[in-house]
Structure formats: C-alpha cells, structure tokens
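Example (one chain per record):
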Amino acid sequence: MKKLWFQLHWFVGITAGTILILIGLTGSILSFREELLDFLNPGVRNIAVQNAPVLTPPQIAAAAKALHPDARIASIIIYSEPGSTARVGLAPAKGAQRGEAIFLNPYTGALLPPLHYDEVFEWVDSLHRHLLLPRDAGRIALGILALCLLGLSLSGLYLRWPRRAGDWRAWLKLDLRLKGRSFLWGLHSVVGTWMMLGYVIFTLTGVYWSFDVVRSTVDGWLGVTRVAREVPGPKPAKGVKPPPVDLAASWATFESAAPNWRMAFLRIPERATAPLQIVWTAKDAPHVRARGRMALNQQTGAMIKNEPYAEMTVGGQAQASIYALHVGSFFGMPGRIVMFLISLALPGFAITGWMLYLNRRKQKRSAAAERKKFAAAGPGSGPAATGADAVLLAYASQTGAAERLALQSAAALQAAGVAVHVHSLEKLTPPQLVKYKRALFVASSFGEGEPPDAARRFNRLLHTAAEELQHMQYAVLALGDRNYAQFCGFGHALDARLRTMGAQALHPTIEVDNGDAGALARWSGTLHALIGGSASDAPELALTAAVADTDYASWRIVGRELLNPGSVGDGLYEITLSGDPAADWRPGALADIWPGHYTPAAAPAAAAPPETHSASPGAQATQADATTAVAPRRYSLASLPSDGVLQLLVRQVRYEGASGPALGLASGWLTDGAQVGDEVRVRLIANPAFDMHTEARPAIYIGNGSGMAGLRSHLRARVQAGQQRNWLIFGERQREFDSVCAQEIAGWRAAGMLPELDLVFSRDVTGGEYVQDRMHVRADVLRDWIAEGAVLYVCGSLQGMAGGVDAALEEMIGRAALDDLIETGRYRRDVY
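Predicted structure:
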C-alpha cells in the first residue's frame, strides 16, 4: 500500500506539481496586492490627513457626477480612517465589459491620479483563479489542482510517518547538517509538515469556490444561502415617474444603525425602485472579511434588511470567513505573512521533488545496468543451483544504492564460481529463507531507521514468522547516513531479528555511512571468506566514497604526541589541530580528514589491508594502495570546542606492501608524514547516534584502543556539567605501555567524577583480560546501573570488542531488554 501511495505521490508531484508552481507564485504576489498597489501608486488610495470634514457618500456621488455627467455611478467605497480616499465605480459604457474606477479626494472631491498596474494584478489574479482559461473551465481546472495538492499533502504525511510518532522532533526538526539526498528529503518532508495545515486550508477553500455542487453542499451545511448582488425592485406603473433617490437619507439610516463602521461599500442599483445594498465592516471586526449586510429603500432611506456580522449565525460567520482563511487575514498580519510564505514555498517543493525523483531515476538506471551486467556474467546464479548450495544475496533498496551493491557483490561471488541467488526483500518471504544455509543482506534505511518501502512487507512477516534458522549463516551490510539518529536502523533491526530466529552471524553488522570505502572494504572481506581464496583474490567493489572538497575547512597541526611508546601494538598518537575558533561540535562528533594532498613516496602494487585498529570509530578503514580511490578518512573527536583545539587519537596503521613496509594513507600522513604547522582539511560531522543523551542519566562508557577518543569527549562534557555518575570500562594491551590518557582519567577519579572505573589489559604478564570479561565479572553492578536508567556508550573496534560487549549484555539482561535499550536511545555505539 505504501509503495502505491509513493508512486501516486511522485506522479502527481511531477505533473500537477509543476503547474502548482504558478499557483504558489501568483498566490504569494496576491497576498500583498493592496500594499503593493499603494507602494506603486503613492497619493492615490491614501493622501495626507487634512483638518477638514470628510465628504459623505452623497457629496462623493455629486463630485463624481460633476466629473462624469454621462456616466451612471454603480458603487462607492469609503473608509472611516482619515486620509483614505473614496473609490467610485462607474457603470460600463455601452458595449464595454467593465466600467472605470476613479479615486476622489475625501476632503474636496477632486479627481486623483488613476491607479496604475491594477490591470497587471488583475491578470495575475486571473492566472491564479482560472489559469487564464474561460471562467467556468478555469474554476474546474483549479479545483482539480487543489485536490491534487490536498492529495500530495496527505500522502506526504503518510509516507514520512516516523516510527516515534509521539516525538515532535521526528516531525518538525530539520537537520541542517544533512547533505545530498538526505538533506533534500529532510527539506521536502519536514518543511512540508510545517506547512501542511496551510496547504490543507488552501485546497479546501479552493475546492469550495471551484465546484458549485461543493459550494451548495457546504452552504447547506452552514445553513446559509448566497446573497444576490442586487434585488430588483418593482417596476413603476407605465407613465409614472418613480420618486427621486435620496442617498442622504439612506446614509443617515446606515450611520444610525452602524455607528462603528470602518469600511462601507455602497452598491447603487440601476433601477431607482431597487434597494440600496451596503456591505460594511466594523472597526472591531475580527478580520477584513467580517462584513455585515444592509438593504435600504433608496427613496426614503427606510431599513429593509440589516444583518451585522456579529449577529450572523455561526454558519454565516464561517461562510464569510472562508476567503479570510484562504489568504490568512483571519489571523491578522501574522496569518497573511505565514500564508505568503507557504504560497512562496510551493515552487520549492516542486523543485526538491524533481531533484529527488531524478536522483532516484539515476540510481534505478544504475541498478538496472548492474542487473543486466550480472545476468550476462554467467550461469553461477542460474536456477540449477539449489538453495542449500547457493548463497542468498538479498537487498532492501529505497533509491537503488543497496540493489547496486548487492548486484556487484553477487557478480564478485559469481566470478569466483560461487552460486548466487539475488532477491529483493520485496518478493522474499521467511519460508524461502529456510532453503538457504548462507545469506548476505544489503539493507538500506529510510528516514529515521525505517525499512525501505519495498521491504516493509518482509519486515512485518519476519517479525511474526515462526520459522527457525539455526542452520543459516548470514551477514548484514547496512547502508545509512550517520547524521540520522537511527543510523542504519533497519540493518540493525534485521540483524537482531535473524539472531532471534537462531541464525548465526558471520560478524557484526557492517555500517556504511554515505558510501564509506573502508566499510565496503570490510564487506569485500566477507565475500572473500565465502569464496575461500587468498587475499589477492579478494573481490573488489567498484565504488568510490569520494566527497566534494567544498565542505572542508583548513586546520593546522599544532601538536603530535605518541601515547604508547614501547607498546607491542601500533602507535597511538594524539593529534592536535588548530583552526576556526567558532567551530562547534557535540560530544561524540566525527571529523572527516581529506588525505587527497598526500601520496605515498613508493605506492605498493598490492592493496593495503583495512586499518582495523585505526582511530576512526566512525567506521572508516583505509588503504594506501595507489590504485585506491582517495576518500576522506573519518575519526572521532577526542576534545570539546571549549578546549580551544580539535584533538584526534590516531592509530598508526602499518602493513607489508609489495614494495616493503607501508603506512595507512591517512594515519601514516597524520602520524609520520605531516609536520607541525602543516595544513589539514577537516570537515566536522555530527553524530546524533552517539551524541549525549538529552537527560542527565548515569552513563557507562565502554571501549578499547583508539575508541578512547569518542569516550573522552563525552567524559569531558560530563565533568564540565558536574554529572558524577560515570563509569568507564576500557581495554588496551599492556598496562605499562598502553595506559592511554591515564593522568586525565586519574584526575577524574580523584575528583569523584568516575565512581566506577575498570581498566583492563589483554596482554599483561599477570594475566590478560578483555572488556567483555570485566563486564561479566561486574554483571550485578552493571544490571543495577541499567535498572537506574543508565545510558551505555560503546566506542572502539567492531571485531572482538563491540561484538563481545553486545553478547555480554545480551547474556546479562536478555535480548528483549537490550533491544529496548536500543529503541529508547540508551545503547549508543560508534564502532569501526
């Protein structure tokens, strides 16, 4: 159902939405038509206030008659505000459709200059109301467009319905840190939610005016009928001259009945025996369209009908307010400004909608090309391979990126002689999973961690399935954007459900942040393991994680310190950068370091292995092979803006290349190649999934190695805020050489900011211990902290530590409780 609504939404958006651009632009122009006319015609509709009596309508009529003796006066509009001129409408000349409108000085009756540019606004008004078509056809066309806009608004609301519908941030918060398609989607959906009420008002009032059947039905519901413009009076007997019109008597009656009038619109009928119609607004009227109606005998001034707005029925007042709702004047000037902005935004929705559509088409075409390429590659994926022998490669794709990755992965396996069955989750069911012993899932996330539209059915079936998958081994490649709080949410949910059904994970979920090349390299390792070949045979994914250089700022290296001299492991360096003093970031934030300015002196012929213990808890692995596409390397920030500098903890990666020992592309340059004072291009990246919890809860920090970077920024923020319920569980190799940040940790401990502290070392001569081992030892205390509402932060290596921590927690509190921690934002990870 959701897929159908999505198809309808984009089809209507790129067709009717294009015409709605005109409606939005013309509506925004007409929002301030009167003010624009006054600006373009100074001294026409308003003049300087004079110390003289204002002319009455009879005197205005006499002055107009003196100027145009042969013309019949059809209407007079006057205002009680000093300085407002009188507008006199003359009846059309013979053969003409419209009569002339003149403006008279309210004090002297002198003719004022004509109103220029009014015909331009009339043309804009005709375009807005009728698309320049004949009136009846134009009204119907606009009514259909109004219904299309209503459909776009409501279907857009349905399509973006967040998982946590009760959280206002999920509905109304626009994250300006997003980039590319994610930013366009946020702009389109979140701003659309802001303005949806306005569009519903536009469309409902537009439909009311467009279709007579709708208008008659609504008027019937409101208990009102349309008011005729002119009620014909009786014809005088043949040869009998009707009594003369006494406009002064009628005006005296009106002023007696409506002493607080602000505007009066006198419609003077052609027939002398017909009543004079006056439409008027009071000074205390709630809006400019809150108009009363009065009918008077032209000869005697006697009252025939008087219906002030304040005495109308609720239905009558509602009908009189429809136009005011449409233009926003029902809510005064603020309402008009809001409706103006909403009208002006319509083209923006059309533009962003087109951009999203074209981006989706591009992704789909790319995926289609990959399908053709895969289909033509050979028989490895043919029907001859049974489920027991073949590898299932399933994907959940919103824009085509996951499908493309799945097809490229399948092609790599197929080229190595591994039978592969490729399926979209859209057409896959849990009973079909039972047929496979090995399965790979490439799962993108949509919005705030939701499954893509095509995977919603599978997700629902999987969570209600009774099948058991103990015989299956699987791996998940989760695609997402780290700027979203539920980063790779569907991939993690899929992994959790497969575990619950008994399937065995080959390794923890691999997270891909906006095409991260390092994460794809680890996925390539998964494919290599299935192939069973040597490292040189590892399949290569032809993707690039290159990012435009425009978002980067210039920083300079001002310090570099080796934190673990003598360690058996690779060097861990604290890199200190100085740059924009106004730069701001949150604890747990990330930094992209652009290594494009560095080229190894002797590029090895063979690809470097991933930097498995690099200082990039934001999920970044690097290679120093000259053929590897240069891409930004991502690191957790180990400092706060209040520190005045930007600090990183960088693990120097070494490997044996074809030409001898080599260093990682980014880590090698930062820790060895660059000099103090060298420029570094840095892009700060928000990391909501690892940000501080909004509430001041107890906090448990768990990590290892260079993961101290993300934990240290959090602990510094907690210390600054005076929040003392902190627990650090941290692991390294040897106490003597790898006591990272020991002095700072000791200071926190002495100050009472670390009431619980567990430092473990895996290669100490006195006996090794890992983080997850210490968690088991202190399981009772851990459970107590969690019961008190503690938030857990895990930062460090994905292989080993993060998976071990996850397994330890599941054993201690159960999978359901762990899933609840994840769902409520109390289990936050930044692992690589």
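Caption: The longest strand covers residues 553-562.
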